[in-house]
Amino acid sequence: MSVLTSLGDVLDGRTFEAVVIGASAGGVSALLEILPGLPRDVPVPVVVVVHMLRGRPSQLAELFAARLDAPVREAMDKDEVAPGSVYFAPADYHLSLEADATFSLSCEPLHIFTRPAIDYAMQSAADVYGDALVGILLTGANHDGAAGLAAIGAAGGLTVVQDPHEAQVPVMPREAIKLRAPDLILPLREIRGLLTMLETR
Questions:
Q1: Which pLDDT does position 2 carry in this prediction?
Q2: Where are the catalytic residues (predicted)?
Q3: Residues 6+ apart with CB under 8 A from 181
Q4: Angle CA(14)–CA(15)–CA(16) in degrees, nearest 5?
Q5: pLDDT at site 5
Q6: Looking at 51, 58, 85, 119, which residue is catalytic?
Q7: Which of 6, 29, 38, 128 has its CA 20 to 30 A from that of 47?
Q8: Is 96 a catalytic residue?
Q9: Known catalytic residue at 77
């Protein structure tokens, strides 16, 4: 496990174009701790993928819209991935980011028993944004997101994992750390602080 590193040291001189966050079991509570810290004029798009029960519509966009100053919406196929908004993956669709900075939704088979899958969003975003991407993986009960976060790291992006000792369900953070050491392992309060410190290109 990598040691916790000073946020200032890691962010010094770095600029970013997008953030992708993945979470599963316990994720809504974790997101309620970190996302309300976003400013109204959040300078990058923040894309959030949360595992959900199949067959039910997602109400995450509505839940967080009532609690955030920044605009919140559900990602739609072909929508522009624009700075200044928080986007949630819709229920029962894989969410990918395309080279023209638009969203793509698909009904491809379940990935690690889930759709939407965190790996799809993170791996596609790594292809689009490279070293200008921040990937954050939170609490969860399986290894979805580990490969996606590793892809972000391989592309030069900044990788962040919730401290497994704090996570409601530590399997997902531990699997990510095991696959590729992240740049930062942080408690939620410091992830919230990180999101307010990002500078843009």
A1: 42
A2: 24, 51, 144
A3: 1, 2
A4: 130
A5: 52
A6: 51
A7: 6
A8: no
A9: no
Give the residues across from 126 on adjacent strands: none
Predicted pLDDT of residue 199: 78
Task: Mark whether 144 is an active-site residue.
Answer: yes
Q: What is the pTM of this model?
A: 0.95
Instruction: Spot the catalytic one: 85, 96, 124, 144.
Output: 144
Query: Residues of the chain whose pLDDT is less than 70?
Result: 1-6, 201
**pLDDT at position 3:** 40
Nearest to 201 by CA among 5, 7, 2, 15: 15
Where along the chain do its domains lie?
7-197
H helices of 35-145, in order, are: 60-65, 118-129
The rounded distance, in Å, linking the Cα atoms of 41 and 135 is: 20
Looking at CATH, the fold of the domain delimited by 7-197 is given as Rossmann fold (3.40.50)
Contact 121, 49 (CB under 8 A): yes
pLDDT of residue 37: 86
Residue 57: the pLDDT is 80
Cα 109 from Cα 29, distance rounded (Å)? 28
What is the enclosing helix (H) or strand (E) of 185? strand 184-186
Residue 143: CB partners within 8 Å, gap ≥ 6?
112, 171, 172, 175, 176, 179
